[in-house]
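Box 3.1 A note on notation
Throughout this textbook, protein chains are presented in two layers. The first layer is the amino acid sequence; the second is a token string describing backbone geometry. Keep the layers aligned when reading.
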Amino acid sequence: MCGVDYAAVESDADLLEWSRSYCREVRRRWGVDVRFDLVEWEISHRAKRRAAAVKRPKLPDATVGEPYDWTTVEGADGRPLPCTLSLTREAFETFDRAEWEATLRHELIHVEQYQRDGTTDHGEAFRERASALDTDVHCQAFAEATYVLTCERCGGLVARRYRDCPLVRERERYRSDCCGAALELA
């Protein structure tokens, strides 16, 4: 699969090489519709909350589930604008291989949605795709959250927060994506 064995990953370059190779294998094996020529890769040494993230331009008229017309975006030349897949080194060092692979599959769903729809979320389409790719809707935590918000109806994880924020303070204004129920502070 890759020139670098998972157990031998030491440098950031090794981590990027192994992760890129694994993602290409996921594309082949599970039919993930992602153009890697439009994905930039980076390693974060600062992130404390996210194992990985897809950084992308915000397109105000984009909706998950509706293919985006990239011909309307200046500089896009009819193809999606590049996004960046940012991998957190500390998460890689904390997770076992199966957790890291699941994290990468999770992020590939975000890239796939972004490239097709111009945006991404954790809604119903994401949940269905996550099930098909044998990954979770929310990535494993690698640091202890100060606040954990769950769905009042089903108990599902809605968000982990590491500091006080409007979602924590004003949680009665928000609803879960899964059931549309109120949020509880666990």
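The two ends are 41 Å apart (CA to CA). The chain has two domains: 6-132, 147-185.
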